[in-house]
Design a protein that fits this description.
Number of helices: 4
Distance between the termini: 45 Å
Oligomer: single chain
Radius of gyration: 19 Å
Strand content: 5-15%
Number of domains: 1
Largest sheet: 4 strands, antiparallel
Number of strands: 4
Structural class: alpha+beta
Length: 165
């Protein structure tokens, strides 16, 4: 049960931080308004994302897109809970990573339920290279998935024993 306390704590922290930053942007900025933080590299820009990460599916038919984004997050959250159930309590790195993905998914899902889109505002660019804006929930999801991928990559593979017949 300790791992579910971690999930609630870490996931809850991410949801709170994500929602507080989005409320600040949504209430203090007009759509498209931007503030330069680091010239030529980083702005705070209010963007409405109707798609997934990096605007994926943003231009698909609204009926499909809206249905997809209403059904997919609860499904992903259930899968995370199922995976977490099988994780050892002492595997803190995996528990933290899953908690980050869970918290990020909840943060963005709250936006979709409440607003019909996700508030993005972290806007990075270098010269002509411009990344799509993102938010705290997106950072948590990407970092959590990256940690899980690293764990999978470095995890010892079971050795298959040959049986002599």
């Amino acid at each position: 049960m300790k791992k579910f306390v971690f999930l609630a704590t870490i996931g809850g922290f991410i949801v709170c931080l994500d929602q507080m930053t989005k409320i600040l942007i949504h209430t203090q900025y007009d759509l498209g308004e931007s503030t330069t933080v680091i010239q030529g590299f980083f702005d705070i820009t209010y963007v409405r994302n109707f798609g997934a990460a990096f605007g994926f599916l943003a231009k698909t038919h609204p009926g499909f897109r809206d249905t997809f984004f209403m059904l997919m997050p609860p499904t992903a959250l259930m899968i995370i809970l199922f995976i977490l159930k099988g994780v050892e309590d002492n595997d803190k790195i995996q528990v933290v990573a899953l908690s980050m993905v869970f918290g990020g998914a909840v943060g963005n899902y709250i936006d979709r339920l409440h607003l019909g889109y996700v508030v993005d505002f972290l806007d990075f660019y270098v010269s002509d290279t411009h990344w799509p804006a993102f938010n705290v929930a997106d950072m948590a999801i990407v970092c959590g998935v990256a940690i899980l991928l690293v764990l999978m990559f470095f995890q010892a593979k079971p050795q298959i024993k040959k049986v002599n017949t």
